[in-house]
Design a protein that fits this description.
Oligomer: single chain
Low-confidence stretches: none
Mean pLDDT: 74
Order of helices and strands: HHHHHH
Radius of gyration: 17 Å
Number of strands: 0
Number of helices: 6
Keywords: Membrane, Transmembrane, Transmembrane helix
Shape: elongated
Largest sheet: none
Structural class: mainly alpha
Helix content: 55-70%
């Protein structure tokens, strides 16, 4: 019965924005935890909850995490810049503009002015 009901619900339309969002979150995770080549222990040993949960919400509550991520991405304030500045490893400082450009592509594609 449940499988039949799932077939009745239309699948959400997958757009390039979903791919950019996924790439951005993986990218942000990597530039936070990977220290860079030649470093002793290439992975930062910080507690993920210390650096990420205050920005993206609880890792145990996916609804809260989704709401926090959307708020971080879509708000036009400086929260995202503070997040990037606080979480990037020094080795990846030069990639901060890319993080901002990816976010801008997501925000612009979500607004009516950014859709083409």
């Amino acid at each position: 019965m449940a499988w039949k009901l799932l077939k009745l619900v239309p699948a959400p339309v997958h757009t390039f924005k979903h791919d950019i969002q996924s790439f951005l979150w993986v990218f942000l995770f990597l530039v936070h935890f990977y220290i860079g080549p030649g470093s002793e222990g290439a992975i930062r040993q910080d507690d993920m909850r210390k650096y990420w949960c205050r920005w993206i919400g609880s890792l145990n509550d996916t609804k809260k995490m989704r709401a926090s991520r959307e708020k971080l991405m879509k708000n036009r304030d400086d929260r995202y810049s503070v997040f990037v500045d606080a979480t990037f490893s020094k080795y990846f400082e030069g990639l901060k503009p890319l993080a901002h450009d990816l976010r801008q592509a997501i925000v612009d594609s979500a607004s009516p002015q950014g859709r083409h």
